[in-house]
Amino acid sequence: MTRSYSAHTLPQQKQSWHTYSVAKTLDTLGTNPQTGLDTESVNQRQKHYGPNEIEETAGRSNWEILLDQFTNIMLIMLIVVAIISGILDIVELRNSGTARSGVPFKDTIAIFSIVILNGLLGYLQETRAEKALAALKKLSSPQVQVIRDGKRQEVEAPSLVPGDIILIEAGDSLCADGQIIECSHLNIRESALTGEAHPVDKTPLSQGLQEDTPIGDRINMVFTGTEVIQGRAKVVVTGTGMDTELGKIAEMLQSVETEDTPLQQRMTQLGNVLVTGSLILVAVVVVGGVLRAGWGLLQELIEISLSMAVAVVPEGLPAVITVTLALGTQRMVKRHALIRKLPAVETLGSVNVICSDKTGTLTQNKMVVQEVETIGGNYQVTGTGYEPSGEFICSEAKSSIHCSRYGALQALLFTGVLCNDAHLSQESGDWIIIGDPTEGSLLALGGKAGLQQSRLEQEYVRVGEFPFSSERKRMSIICQPSQTKDGWPSWQTEPNDDYVLFTKGSPELILERCDYYQQGQRVQPLTQEEREQVLRGNNGMAKRALRVLGFAYKPLKQIPDATEADEAEQGLIWLGLAGMMDAPRTEVKAAVAKCRAAGIRPIMITGDHQLTAQAIAQQLGIVQPEDHVLTGRELERISQPQLEQEVEQVSVYARVSPEHKLRIVQALQKRNKFVAMTGDGVNDAPALKQADIGIAMGITGTDVSKEASDMVLLDDNFATIVAATEEGRVVYSNIRHFIKYILGSNVGEVITIAAAPLMGLSGVPLIPLQILWMNLVTDGLPALALAVEPADPHIMERPPFSPKESIFARGLGFYIVRIGIVFSIITIALMSWAFYDAQQPGNDPDSWKTMVFTTLCIAQMGHAIAARSTTRLAIEMNPFSNLYLWGAVIVTTILQLMLVYVAPLRAFFNTTVLTGEQLVICLLFSSLMFVWVEFEKIVLRIYRKLKT
């Protein structure tokens, strides 16, 4: 009978159920394994525990995201400028009946249009819905078989409660955590939770496990979101909803707070500097103008201030950055990296630590036999993946061999192919395995010796089998050789025997059942000396992180009964060992070396065993043999401050859980590391979200991991991360190029506008609409072209720049100020001459303003050509390497001339027609900008030569 509980005595879900025996668990939960819970208990528990669902906390609404876009300090300043400009237009309309610039509110409308456009760009980047928790919910099976009131029934998954008795079988997706009461050949794939591809054999335990047993080793428990591959079981539910292991991951996922990317932080800093500098300069101009000419020029000073405010804000910068990042994403897709969040493109360039999973990312996610050993010799096996192509190399002779000449070796290969339930096939040029990867590796091994499964199965017809189980740890089949003796292998000692038993499995267990061993074409008694030799070989392979199988066979006179397995599997003939592993990807070792050359530290974080992780890491150059590997159990015992010290020395973490991955990433970030983290399982989602760059696997990754990530690897390859990092560096480098190009012009505009009243010139040299044109079109088009400038060939031969460095770091700020001053000196010199010339009889008195406008615009074209490189002269660079720049320069120059010579545009932008002489003077003054930047390069080159 089930027990009734009052609400305050109901069992707590948060207990270490894996440490309990089955009897203790059932007693604690007050349930009966035969009859389950009664209806009253179920109702009582549903009210107490709530539905078996993942709970989701509310995030920002779309309206909140939209409003947040207009809290940017530069947009706020533009909004204030637009409002003041509108007020001045209203005042002018009331006083004179006409607007200041001919069309009422023209500047206000133009500025507000830019503000709204920039706000929408930011909104579109941020409104990608947070779908990770929604994907978590999909992992719950909608229906489940349960025993309640002594009857078997089917219920909705959300109605499950702790204490329910559920029945699971092959093909089911589990929707609650539980402890196994009884099972038969239960095999569960837990890759979504642990990240490891190999299915786990489960079994009930009469005694519980240790408290610190990792999730992957809790063989008496089942977990939400995992899949039953084989067998069936009766399970008592121990955890539902947020109290499952999956719920813990959801809780961690929701607790992770996202921070601004380095680019977003730098743009915020840029806005603060520009707005502060602008306000100071405005104050100087207004105070200086009032002191010089009195309060009568206050409206003109306000108009000048408005123009300065518009000039200081790079209105086209957000759009240029967005397009640059979008172009970066396109280039990355060609390199098999899909960017989900635009800022991640640039962020990749700052990465100095890459935390990578092992399976499928650093390795092929394909079991490959590396080594075979018989009592007669050791053989290395070449080849990659499941392709049945490779060589057998004798370790002693160091030369390739023909397997048919080595009886024990050929017999082992026969056994591996025949004692096998997998199938090897070729699809679209790729070799794939249908079935267990371990068995698939044996088919590929046999294929390398020319043994085809289909042919062997015709010659040796399977007539019986003793299947593998977690208790037996071996598999045997009974085959009947065909009557035709042609093609029988040389090792077949008694071809007249009616049947042959082939066995594979745990080397130690199979060796115990062997009395003989194969040597060439003869069978010899197995002595203690040979047994010790086999065990030494087995231990050596295990230390090299190989998964080892033993092989044996035995002639039979008749087919044994299914109940006679133990007797039939005695007196076997030992054949040898095969060691296999999920081999490293061939290209990853070079990628790891490239990482190190670029100042990026690769770290392996895996749920796999310590020896396997260390062996793979050594092969790839991630660690040295003497380096320490930190395990999940060790992580449990150290504090977070201790871990923060450890992360500086440890590059391999094995047998880790989801909480450990999150702790490792946080510890690295505390040490000022900029972390990229890869993952494919549900368990990786919190760490992916916490990392500065979360990278999900496109092939093996779960929906949860993809939704929590910034980038998805379309080929699940570590080398692709390195390629994407290179693209990130290129993007950041180009962003710095066009920022210095755009802001140099803006500083020149501001100083020029500020100089006009201080020089006693009447009127504003540039109206806000003209400044918007310069910032959006004249600056914007060449800036976009600079964004696709080819990469520096040595970009991956230097350490990454600090993600916390200022946008003005490494001389960029000084360059902007210096070039801005040169810009203003050139333009002010022209403005002085042009203002004097405009006052001459017969000349248009406003032509000086158009000359200033045109000179600033055309000068930027020369600046764009020179800004392609900080060291090489324009004449030294390949003019065809960036045709977009030349196209932008030509198109922008034509558009600028249209504002001067096309009547409707001239009227809208308040320009005047320039004479041929005036246009030539503008072009001459504009060319001085190009000459100055090139001159700086020559001076810098001479200085460096003298210094060396």
UniProtKB/TrEMBL annotation:
Boundaries of every Cation-transporting P-type ATPase N-terminal domain copy: 16-90
InterPro entries associated with the record: ATPase_P-typ_cation-transptr_C, ATPase_P-typ_cation-transptr_N, ATPase_P-typ_cyto_dom_N, ATPase_P-typ_P_site, ATPase_P-typ_TM_dom_sf, ATPase_P-typ_transduc_dom_A_sf, ATPase_P-type_domA, HAD-like_sf
Reaction catalyzed: Ca(2+)(in) + ATP + H2O = Ca(2+)(out) + ADP + phosphate + H(+)
GO-annotated cellular components: plasma membrane
Bias-annotated ranges (Polar residues): 30-44
Keywords: ATP-binding, Cell membrane, Magnesium, Membrane, Metal-binding, Nucleotide-binding, Translocase, Transmembrane, Transmembrane helix
Topology in the lipid bilayer: Multi-pass membrane protein
GO molecular function: ATP binding; ATP hydrolysis activity; metal ion binding; P-type calcium transporter activity
Compartment list: Cell membrane
Membrane spanning residue stretches: 70-88, 108-124, 273-298, 304-327, 812-836, 848-871, 883-903, 915-935
PANTHER family: CATION TRANSPORTING ATPASE, CATION-TRANSPORTING ATPASE PMA1
Record-stated family: Belongs to the cation transport ATPase (P-type) (TC 3.A.3) family. Type IIA subfamily.
Protein name per its UniProtKB record: Cation-transporting ATPase, E1-E2 type
